[in-house]
Task: structure prediction
Amino acid sequence: MLELTPWIFLLPFLSFSIILFFGRWLPLKGAIVGIVSISLGFILSAALFFSGVTGHLTLPYLWQVPWFSFGSYQMTLGVYVAGETVCMLFVITLVSLLVHIYSLGYMHGDPRFKRYYAFLSLFTASMLGLVLADSLFTLFACWELVGLCSYFLIGFWFEKSAAAYAGRKAFITTKLGDLGFLVGLLLLFSITGTFSIPQLQELAHGGVLPVGLTGIACLLLFCGAMGKSAQVPLFVWLPDAMEGPTPVSALIHAATMVTAGVFLVARVFFLFEINPMVLHVVAAVGAITALCAALMGLVPEDIKRVLAFSTVSQLGYMMVGMALGGPQVGMFHLTTHAMFKAMLFLGAGSVIHAVHTNDIWKMGGLRKKMPVTFVTFVIGVLALAGIFPLSGFFSKDQILHAAIASGNIPVFVLLTITAGLTAFYMSRVAVLAFFGEPRDHHAYEHAHESPIAMTLPLVVLAVPSIFLGAYLFHGETFARLIPMQLEHEVYHVSTTLVAVVSGVVALAGIVIAWLMYGARLIDYESLYSKFNLLWRFLYARMGFDGVWLFLVEAADRLAGFLAALDYHVLDQGIVDGSGSLTVLFSKIGRWFDDTIVDNLVDCWGWLFAGGGNLVRASVSGFVQNYLLYIIVGVSLILAFRIYF
Amino acid sequence: MNPTAYIGVSAVLFAIGVFGAIARRNVITVLMSIELMFNAANINLVAVNRLMYTASSMGQVIALFSITIAAAEAVVGLALVLAIYKKFDTVFVENFNLLKG
Result:
């Protein structure tokens, strides 16, 4: 079964080409091809996942073909399937399949329907390639492809300038992280001499890698993860990315692309472990991200934006889980989060489709009109808040327990506060959208439950949102798949205590949200006006956008200055200048040649001509003169002979 | 008498001949001066023969030859003068400047 894994990547890639070139003539504009290829991939991935958690899978699996060589190094093309790969395959194919089906309803009638499905296939293929890649080089290639597809899909409705801007912003911000990734990758190659992940694992376990340099390389790789997985300060693209179609948000920003960074950390965790400073940095960044994003999620009126900030916050949780608990804890939360976050996004899409607005202040009382969406959305909110026994509870608690057991009290406090905030802002959205009196009657009148294509995925995702956490947690289930876990028990804290604390905090969040927005016992309007400055600060996303814009502006100015420098000093000054100088020198040379040299030559000739003229005077034509010359000459010779 | 006087006579005659060859206008006179130079050379030959090489009479023989050749050369010279006179219609040397240049 494992030998078939390359097909999981190849089928969507082929379907991309087929849809792109032949989609016009296929039924449903090629969506069928996409759905079929992802379904096949899903069946195989689910089989792999479940045999993995029941212990019937021998991992890791490596399949390589030699590709090309440069110097003495041979690059390979292939798949390397480890526990985290199986986990991601399951998540990616499931969510992608459901998004394909959901989009049949959501994107119905869109003029670029074919292109949408082509990009969905390409995106899925690249993401699968990323998780299957056996060398960091192909991983990076797929990483970039994923970023490219996210640009296409976020800016899908590019007639809207906000969407086009968001697409560019996403691509460029993640590209900045990718720069760090590339430098780290090259540094890693220079340290280890290989791109291949199994080989790197061997080297790492052999203990031969230099601690400092590997640490720097890992931090640089983490820069890439920060960009893709929206950590502070490179998260700024994710809230704007909500301009894309909602199923795209569900796929890309809940379950797949943003988890690429978390996956990367899991994939090369053996490198991250080498230098303990790296894991501390990851935990710190994750914790700060979790809290800041949760704070920013308190204020938006756009339902998708709240979900976006929630995603950023949960990604921070995953990073903390990775750093303090190991890949098992991080990937567990990744898996459960993918399920309920995708469901929440799809549910939000369903609501938007019904009332034609994203603004929660224009919604209200929708639970009567859209029962399926309502129930699944509430399940999602509870799962995200971490209420027992839904899946989010188990994964979140594992992270909190890892945080406090490893002695990181500040991180634990930050994450607990964040848990409370999470419960609060999600409940706020749920209450404002589904409970109470409708605020916009016109929209309410037209609201209706979405078609089966959109509600079916919601129901399907509800099942793992409720049960997957408990299933993977009991016994050794998930541990069989990803056995790697960090063990440092600084404090002996029982998991029950942590569970109780987080449960209390979550319930408090939900209750306060109900009191503020549902029962109106706390007046939120007066709170908003009292904390207006804070509210505006959070609404402006803590000014990160401003900082980045400033930096971009500065870089632009610098580039402009350098361009002007290049043009005026280098091109005009030096190159043209040396040209003019050469022309000047050649003019002087010419003058020299004309005046001096030519005249010298003339003088020499004139000298001879003058001399000749002088001598000509003696050629008189008179023979007697000649006779005289003879006589004089002979006399002189005779005198010479006689006296010397 | 003093044998050295003969060589003196020869020298004086030669000098007069040179002067005449250089400084006379009439080409016939120039030819006459050249004849004079010949005669001076002949006298010199005989005188030196009598003074220094008394055993031999070589000088006198050479002088005899010299007279003959002088005569032949005079013929040639006069023939040339006749040709020139036919061209230039004058016997004065200052008009013979075709070689000028």
User: Anything to note?
Assistant: The mean pLDDT of chain A is 87.
